[in-house]
């Protein structure tokens, strides 16, 4: 395997790997293996031959269910088969555990003594758990509007939390500079995390026995989107699947930098990001370049949905299919229901439910579930 800058094609070795290239571009890991044999239980660890570490730090992540949403198909008379990849059942309640397993394993390999990360909540909680498992003290820097339940989860795992009065991209830049100055190991949405995250796509391909026609993914920093696409491209290269899926990204109307960039052809930071789906409230996605490449290569698209549409999708998943998703986790379904006509009749569509509803149970003061309860 070799590491390459997506923007300028500069190559790096694993021993001297920076967080990002000096040109500002994200790094990608090129898998040069031509023959691979998968073995073991249907879990994240099954894909070790495709990962850039020799040993995982694991809590039993992966192996999440792919569920047919038949009641929603009937309720909305959808002419296609709709599935949900339920990442909420991972150890800390989100897809982030896959990336943390690989990223913390890399930190162990590099003999990290301390680590830090910028996070809106889910990644911080996941890394707190996995860093605790590895015995690496962790500090999590979060925007001031991070969900209290997520902060409680981070603290429960023993990590230190610092709340910062800045937008997410500014928090990331500050933590990167701080880690460089203090020689603290930096964790976050970088190359090792993307490699771990791609096993979401690996599992979908194995569960269906092929690639679906379309995969719909919520976009925050973009690593879930780019990782899923990468999984399918690697599977096709290994001749395990014949076709690649169309990739559709979903963002919130109050924070849609990818949608804007796709339309305008240039990147601009969202000045005042605001959405009930705080897990995807990223004003300038770190993996934006790879996201756009995946959309164009797959002839896909990106769209935005409003907070009301997102909260409606939370209710629909819970009440029709028994899946309790946090707002960001329901965003993909909201995107599908916004325009079902874009999906071909008889096709297979998979939406990724990225996180559990208990991550943000009081996501909207006007939408609290407890207000629906009967009082005797």
Q: Would you give an account of this structure?
A:
- This protein is α/β, with parallel strands linked by helices and 376 residues long.
- The protein is 36% helix and 16% strand.
- The protein has 3 domains: 1-30, no CATH class; 66-94 and 193-359, Rossmann fold, CATH 3.40.50; 95-190, Rossmann fold.
- The chain is built from 12 helices and 13 strands.
- A 6-stranded mixed β-sheet has the order 4-5-13-10-11-12, with helices on both faces.
- The relative contact order is 0.14.
- The model has no long low-confidence stretch (mean pLDDT 94).
Keywords:
12 helices, alpha/beta, Rossmann fold, single chain
Order of helices and strands: EEEEHEHEHEHEHEHHEHEHHEHHE
Rounded radius of gyration (Å): 19 Å
Helix content percent band: 25-40%
Strands in their spatial order, largest beta sheet: 4-5-13-10-11-12
CATH class of the largest domain: Alpha Beta
Count of all domains? 3
Helices and strands: which structural class? alpha/beta
Distance between the termini: 63 Å
Number of helices: 12
The overall pLDDT average reads 94
How many DSSP-defined strands? 13
In short:
By secondary structure, the protein is α/β, with parallel strands linked by helices. Helices cover 36% and strands 16% of the residues. The strands form 3 sheets. It has a 6-stranded mixed β-sheet with strand order 4-5-13-10-11-12, with helices on both faces. A 4-stranded parallel β-sheet has the order 8-7-6-9, with helices on both faces. Strands 2-1-3 form a 3-stranded antiparallel β-sheet.
């Amino acid at each position: 395997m070799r590491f390459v800058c997506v923007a300028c094609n500069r190559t790096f070795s694993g021993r001297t790997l920076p967080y990002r290239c000096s040109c500002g571009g994200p790094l990608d890991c090129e898998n040069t293996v031509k023959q691979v044999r998968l073995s073991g239980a249907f879990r994240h660890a099954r894909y070790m031959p495709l990962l850039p570490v020799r040993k995982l730090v694991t809590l039993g992540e992966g192996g999440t269910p792919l569920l047919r949403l038949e009641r929603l198909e009937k309720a909305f008379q959808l002419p296609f088969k709709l599935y949900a990849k339920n990442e909420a059942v991972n150890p800390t309640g989100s897809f982030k555990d896959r990336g943390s397993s690989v990223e913390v394993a890399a930190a162990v390999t590099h003999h990290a003594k301390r680590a830090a990360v910028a996070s809106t909540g889910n990644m911080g909680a996941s890394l707190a758990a996995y860093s605790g498992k590895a015995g690496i003290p962790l500090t999590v820097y979060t925007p001031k509007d991070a969900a209290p339940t997520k902060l409680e989860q981070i603290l429960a795992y023993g990590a230190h939390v610092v709340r910062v009065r800045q937008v997410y991209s500014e928090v990331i830049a500050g933590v990167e500079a701080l880690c460089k100055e203090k020689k603290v190991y930096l964790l976050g949405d970088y190359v090792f995390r993307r490699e771990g995250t791609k096993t979401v796509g690996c599992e979908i391909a194995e569960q269906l026995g092929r690639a679906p026609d379309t995969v719909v993914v919520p976009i925050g920093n973009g690593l879930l989107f780019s990782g899923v696409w990468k999984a399918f491209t690697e599977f096709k290269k290994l001749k395990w699947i014949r076709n690649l899926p169309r990739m559709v990204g979903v963002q919130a109307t109050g924070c849609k930098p990818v949608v804007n960039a796709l339309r305008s052809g240039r990147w601009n930071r969202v000045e005042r990001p605001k959405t009930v789906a705080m897990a995807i409230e990223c004003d300038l996605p770190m993996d934006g370049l790879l996201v756009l490449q995946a959309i164009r290569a797959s002839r896909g698209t990106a769209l935005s949905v409003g907070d009301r549409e997102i909260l409606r999708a939370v209710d629909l998943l819970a009440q029709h299919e028994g899946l309790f998703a946090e707002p960001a986790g329901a965003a993909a379904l909201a995107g599908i229901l916004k325009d079902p006509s874009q999906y071909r009749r008889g096709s297979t569509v998979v939406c990724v439910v990225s996180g559990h509803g208990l991550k943000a149970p009081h996501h909207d003061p006007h939408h609290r579930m407890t207000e629906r309860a009967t009082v005797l």
